[in-house]
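INFO batch 0412 | record 1 of 1 | parsing
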Amino acid sequence: MQALWLEHQQLNYYPNLPPPKPLAGEALVRVLVAGICTTDLELLKGYYPFNGILGHEFVGEIVEATAAPQRVGQRVVGEINIACGHCRYCQRGWPTHCEQRATLGIANRNGAFAEYLGLPLNNLIPVPATVSNEAAVFTEPLAAALQIQQQMSIRPTDQVLVIGAGRLGQLIAQTLTLTGCHLQVVARYPKQRQLLATRQIPWLAENQVTDNRFDLVVEATGTSSGFTLAQQAVRPRGTIILKSTYAGSEIPVNFSSLVVAEITVIGCRCGPFAPALRLLEQHLVEPTILIEDRFPLAEGIRAFECAKQAGALKILLV
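INFO prediction complete | emitting tokens
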């Protein structure tokens, strides 16, 4: 099969790798569409020492499922964390924090930038017939956006700021508008601003952010400047949600101001797939406006070069 293989931070295209052999309770999935995200780009920089097939955002079709032959032919998306089911965190119902977990295309499990992948049947969720492949491929990042609302209650009276209007920031903004909150988004590039305006979401430049104003600030840039701006923008006793991939640990933090202003800082990662699919089915969000370009898997190296460009939105591999 064709695949994009990461080895020592070098991405290579291989045309003839053997397809995966699903383990007991797993299915073989033919990948239809996959999306490149910031985490994939950070893995190229050494964010995590992963060697193997990249990719965790996908929609595919089950082609083999020994334990559930009735599911063959289903169009599916996949939860990316493969949990053991037995450790203390799995027993608490926290499979995304499993002590032995593997993560599709990120840690100890080959991913979706290939013609086929293997995942446990429990991880594979059917896609509604009315949801297109190009919408369904956004299920994983859309679920990650929804995790914000899983972790805290957002009221219509809340002043909310999202810092960063890239691939994930746009989805976060679309989901937050559904809460009725007073939302603003820091957007740097004209393309980002235009997309926000298309959804009637107010945007502003970094130098227009008011200090100590916002009840909730979502930091979605993964940069030290983004975190600094979040600290400036949040009101006393407000909340900062960190919603990005932070490569490295050299991010200066003014801990004194966090303590004095009694700021809550929340890390936020993977989220619920079923609600994400419902939003797509009901057309309450529109992620396909974020698609910048599409490439065949054989041109995956070129696709990554496009995804690396400043302000680039979603690049798909088909």
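INFO post-check: Residues 144-267 form a domain with the Rossmann fold fold (CATH 3.40.50.720).
INFO record closed
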